[in-house]
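Try this one yourself first.
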């Protein structure tokens, strides 16, 4: 945020040392310098404006007024008022918060006009006394921290438990709340009845603060959570190679509740992983598996969304590379945990406890700190390398993908007749490809890319689909399906195993095309 200007008002000669001490303190303190900027009249450049106009204009533009009152009253104007009293009155007229500090002194030694000003301030304001610059600095620090806390610019508790500014119950989606109650009742035995009102649910989950939704409520059930917390969106990207590089084949920014962010991100990753279906030799159901267990992908993404630092301007990033999947979030580990402890049984220390509880009730996470251990176990069982946890500018999880195996060029089941038939089909496809590509417009290329994505999705689910079945499912002609299959094979996205009539398709991850 832009630092708020603080106007320091006093008789300059009497408080010269204190004014400089406050300026240096506010400019040097690691916390306060983020929020405040001291404004001293003597620091301003020379101007042809009248001094009284200039200092009153500074009062108008400040966010807070700090008055140092001592023994001297200062030079008076034609109306018998000093700049200090003018500034004090102007701040009151403009509704500025006024912090008054009195220098310890015997009232009999004070100028009567200053004594009258002090009594005027005492009638409506809290003032503090000080004897030294150190006491003044300590008093101002406490007052400013209190002001920041009142304005929810700093917090002593979790961010998700603080009130979401400008949010009301009308900004929450009743349908999403109803979905959550039904889901939590089914999977966790949630005690509230299905017809519980939004207020009843939010009260039960401690998601209201004086009747106003806290940040967790908006993230969980908001109609448009990113309207209040822009960086709560999730960014997902897919790269052909092993490093971040342009062009980026696929980049999406997901918005919505934390439940929707998790679901969308998981779908994004799984759509770009290989999905293999085995034979039906052992049973009537063919075994199917993604190259990385979906439970691992989901746990890593939920971890990022649930435990990130929501005060950061960064967003959760999910990146699919040729050799790994990375999930990064702008957060860190709690002080009681280390990277090494993540590989051992450990307690659950959620960064956002009010956000974590509903995620648990909807069965998106577990309570016992078992998530990282489950990820490690599932990767081992799948024959994959263990997840790599790291801390750099945030918390990162890297999930290794299996090394692709070279495909055989000939299968034993393929007959000479089938080989001849396939060759004729491919020759026909090549001719059609040449004719199509010569007249293919930009819109046509877009439709073709969409058709290929749809074909990949269908083959991932059922790799034994025939051209005729694909054509019927996607409302395409047989030749259109053949054309797109040919392009997918050329791009290295699919390969054929087994014979033409009895074989199956294998969907492959995108391969990096080297630049010329």
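Now uncover the answer:
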């Amino acid at each position: 945020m832009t630092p708020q200007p603080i106007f320091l008002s006093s008789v300059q000669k009497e408080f010269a040392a204190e004014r400089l001490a406050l300026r240096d303190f506010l400019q040097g303190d690691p916390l306060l310098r983020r929020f405040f900027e001291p404004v001293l009249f003597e620091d301003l450049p020379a101007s042809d404006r009248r001094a009284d106009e200039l200092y009153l204009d500074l009062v108008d533009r400040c966010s807070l007024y700090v008055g140092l009152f001592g023994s001297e009253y200062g030079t008076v104007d034609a109306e018998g008022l000093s700049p200090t009293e003018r500034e004090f009155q102007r701040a009151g007229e403009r509704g500025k918060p006024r912090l008054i500090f009195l220098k310890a002194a015997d009232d009999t030694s004070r100028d009567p006009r200053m004594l009258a000003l002090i009594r005027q301030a005492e009638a409506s304001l809290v003032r503090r006394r000080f004897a030294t610059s150190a006491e003044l600095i300590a008093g101002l620090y406490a007052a400013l921290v209190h002001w920041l806390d009142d304005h929810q610019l700093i917090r002593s508790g979790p961010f998700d438990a603080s009130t979401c500014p400008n949010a009301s119950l009308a900004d929450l989606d009743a349908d999403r709340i109803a979905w959550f109650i039904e889901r939590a009742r089914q999977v966790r035995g949630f005690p509230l009845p299905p017809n519980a009102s939004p207020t009843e649910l939010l009260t039960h989950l401690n998601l209201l603060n004086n009747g106003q939704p806290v940040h967790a409520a908006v993230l969980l059930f908001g109609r448009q959570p990113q309207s209040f917390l822009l960086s709560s969106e999730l960014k997902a990207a897919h790269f052909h190679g092993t490093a971040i590089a342009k062009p980026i084949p696929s980049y999406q920014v997901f918005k919505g509740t934390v439940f929707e962010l998790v679901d969308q991100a998981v779908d994004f990753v799984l759509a770009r992983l290989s999905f293999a279906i085995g034979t039906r030799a052992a049973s009537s159901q063919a075994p199917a598996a993604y190259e990385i267990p979906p439970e691992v992908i989901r746990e890593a993404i939920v971890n990022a969304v649930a435990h990130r630092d929501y005060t950061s301007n960064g967003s959760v990033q999910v990146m699919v590379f040729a050799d790994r999947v990375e999930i990064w979030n702008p957060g860190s580990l709690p002080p009681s945990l280390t990277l090494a402890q993540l590989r051992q049984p450990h307690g659950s220390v959620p960064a956002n406890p009010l956000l974590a509880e509903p995620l648990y009730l909807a069965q998106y996470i577990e309570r016992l700190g078992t998530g990282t251990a489950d990820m490690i176990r599932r990767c081992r069982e799948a024959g994959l390398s263990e997840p790599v946890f790291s801390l750099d500018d945030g918390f990162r999880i890297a999930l290794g993908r299996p090394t692709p195996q070279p495909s055989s060029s000939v299968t034993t089941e393929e007959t000479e007749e089938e080989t001849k038939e396939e060759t004729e089909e491919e020759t026909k496809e090549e001719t059609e490809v040449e004719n199509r590509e010569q007249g293919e417009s930009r819109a046509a290329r877009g439709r073709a890319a969409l058709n290929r994505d749809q074909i990949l999705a269908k083959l991932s689910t059922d790799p034994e689909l025939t051209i005729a079945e694909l054509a019927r499912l996607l409302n395409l002609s047989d030749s259109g399906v053949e054309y797109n299959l040919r392009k997918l094979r050329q791009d290295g996205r699919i390969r054929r195993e087994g014979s033409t009539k009895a074989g199956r398709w294998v969907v492959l991850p995108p391969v990096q095309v080297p630049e010329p």
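Discussion: The chain has a mean pLDDT of 84. The longest helix spans residues 416-439.
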